[in-house]
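Contributing new records

If you add data, match the layout below exactly. Sequence lines come first and carry their own label; structure lines follow with theirs. Keep one chain per record. Anything else will be rejected by the validation script.
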Amino acid sequence: MNPSRYAASRQLTRPDGSGRFVKYLAIRILPLGESVAGPAVTQVQANEVNRLDLIAFRTTGTVNQAWRIADANDAMDPFALCDTPGSLVKLPGSAL
């Protein structure tokens, strides 16, 4: 199983206004969709509108891979990716 989308992110620390240190993750740079997408596509079903997690479960067997589908489609807004029934969504390559 693939790690989370933040597995490779650097953990950073900075002081807040009271002198305590706050941990946070560095920004994640999105990959180009063409480098993530495989040849397979799927159609958004009527019950999956605005539910990328349902598409991920149907196609990969786990809802945790929705972020990989969003990456494969260069989707900054995953809801827009699946807002129309019947629209085509690229699936990530075989590295699932």
